[in-house]
Here is the input.
Amino acid sequence: MLRLGLLQPSDGDNLNPILQVKGLSKIYGPGCPSCFELTGPEKDTNLCPICGTVISVRGIDFDLYEGEILGIIGESGSGKSTVVKSLFFDETPEQGTADYYEHGVPVSLFEQNAAAKRRLRNQSFGMVYQNPHLGLNFDISAGGNIAERLLVNGTPNYGKIRARGIELLKRTEVLIERMDEKPSSFSGGMQQRVQIAKALATNPPLLFLDEVTTGLDLSVQAAILDLILEIQEEQKTAMIAVTHDLGVIRLLANRTLVMKYGQIVESGLTDQILEDPQQEYTQKLIASAL
Amino acid sequence: METNQPILRLEGFEKTFYLHAQGKSIPSAQQVNLEVFSGQLTALVGPTGSGKSSVLKGIYRTYLSSAGEIWYHTKAGEQIDIAQAQEHQVLELRKSEIGFVTQFLHVPPRRTTLQLVAEPMIKRGVGHEEANQQAGALLDSLQLPQRLWELPPSTFSGGEKQRVNLARGFAAQPRLLLLDEPTASLDPATSELVVQHILKLKDAGTALLAIFHHPELVERLGDVIVRLEPPKETQSTQGKSR
Here is the structure.
């Protein structure tokens, strides 16, 4: 490979891929031979005019390295959320492979059986959704949500689970006195903090963030983004941050993929995407934000 | 034998922007050739619009070059063409070898000045306490008042921001430092402090490629001077407007 021998990693931890995705495709509908030909950014639609199938994502390729934050930006319907939901096993893609490197050994995600997928989801990956109802169980307390994730991972004793819950909620700045309340009594920003605490419970090497700050007050957004950055710096967690907000990309991501109608139209270093966008769509996106 | 090898060599570097919405090409730097050596400063000079900043941004890969090669000689002794390098290679170079100080301060919000200056050192592996101490020393040497250290620089004046920017750039101790008008908003006294820093960096073997607002700084600090000419299209429009 080109990369080998060219650079000595300064602290040896970030020139290894943790995830390699190739040819990922997901459609909703029956599909027909013309679907891929008649949809995509240049056709300005993700809906097949012949069979009515929605081509949510198609032929997505990317690598994620240990400890880096990759941004995926695009408008509604670009398929950006489908990418992370497929990787977190919320959706089942039709095509493509995703290799997750567990202690350097590739694990082909979509070929795993249900038990192995559950283990990866509960232990190795974390997900923070835009909608806290998807990430939290609203029938049990904030502390209970964290306990649930620790229990399925085999943490045996109540004291340890409680202690870890307190540690996580402290870290994410949720008042410990409120840990026995249900998430429904929390503000939107607090619910996101509990979701982050739950996602981090097992110290997962890989975290997916799906529009985590969308719909929150600006000051709350800032605090959540700062928290995510601090956690990334402390734990070197690799993350994929899906957003439609250029400000979030600018703050969080080293590299960025730009998606439109299911495909990647452009990818690059985040500052390059923002200052020297190449594609017409990206130029329009950046121009409309300023 | 290899000691006189440049750390950076540009061959036929060009940058042209294409604006899809307007269907228009905007030429910036054209046919730029230059070399930068360890312990020396190469100064880029030329009129507005000749693409001086585009050259620096092309080397840092904030801009994608339109033509040419950007050969960088790494610490490990390899030659790498930054124009063609993979994104992760570029990120690694930015982290450990190439620094960039622009006229503008682009830093994460809500962090104190001291944190921001200590950060490049912490990334290099310096302990937190020592990094804070050195950050303080750097800010002190650029005469940024201590009462500002615990504040985020977002509300600072132009000159104060520029000093934070310079302190961050110096703190990273890069092998190659790119400077885009680092003294543009500084008073003469502070500007002189920056000059002393740059002379120290040269003595320590840092390679510098710089754009200066003041011609006398080019005179004092430049070991190699590279003059850029504006692209022809720009020349003609400038001629009309004058």
In short: Chain B has two domains: 1-97+175-242, 106-173. The helical segments of chain B are 52-60, 87-96, 113-123, 128-141, 158-171, 188-203, 215-221, 232-241.
